[in-house]
From TrEMBL:
<comment type="similarity">
    <text>Belongs to the IMPACT family.</text>
</comment>
<dbReference type="GO" id="GO:0006446">
    <property type="term" value="P:regulation of translational initiation"/>
</dbReference>
<dbReference type="InterPro" id="IPR023582">
    <property type="entry name" value="Impact"/>
</dbReference>
<dbReference type="InterPro" id="IPR036956">
    <property type="entry name" value="Impact_N_sf"/>
</dbReference>
<dbReference type="InterPro" id="IPR001498">
    <property type="entry name" value="Impact_N"/>
</dbReference>
<protein>
    <submittedName>
        <fullName>YigZ family protein</fullName>
    </submittedName>
</protein>
<dbReference type="Pfam" id="PF01205">
    <property type="entry name" value="Impact_N"/>
</dbReference>
<dbReference type="InterPro" id="IPR020568">
    <property type="entry name" value="Ribosomal_Su5_D2-typ_SF"/>
</dbReference>
<dbReference type="GO" id="GO:0005737">
    <property type="term" value="C:cytoplasm"/>
</dbReference>
<feature type="domain" description="Impact N-terminal">
    <location>
        <begin position="13"/>
        <end position="115"/>
    </location>
</feature>
Length: 116
């Protein structure tokens, strides 16, 4: 059964980043969690995530430039050697483009902060 461990909100250049940390046991839980968040956050610009369950691991950029959202989230999971975890970062665009480097740092910071 999925368990929300923690959530957080960070503002970066008028964009709002909502981060969610879940303990998960299987891939079906991930689909359910993401679908529920898509319904709850219909106006979100991007819903990016990364997960690791045993040998199964994946990340998703949801329209952000390739490698700037899901990958930095996944890098944090790997660096911390976590397992059975899903980190989701929902972005509400604030009107100021962050650039590839800014996005990478923003998503990485969100994932790091949620684990503190």
């Amino acid at each position: 059964m999925n368990k929300l461990i923690k959530n957080n909100i960070i503002l970066i250049k008028k964009s709002k980043f909502l981060t969610f940390l879940y303990e998960i046991d299987n891939l079906e839980e991930i689909k359910e969690i993401i679908n529920n968040l898509k319904i709850e956050h219909k106006k979100a610009t991007h819903i990016c995530y990364a997960y690791k369950i045993g040998v199964n691991a994946k990340y998703f950029d949801d329209g952000e430039p390739a490698g700037t959202a899901g990958k930095p989230i996944f890098n944090v999971i790997e660096k911390k050697n976590l397992n059975n975890v899903l980190i989701i970062v929902i972005r509400y665009f604030g009107g100021i483009k962050l650039g590839a480097g800014g996005l990478f740092r923003a998503y990485s910071n969100c994932a790091s902060e949620i684990l503190k």
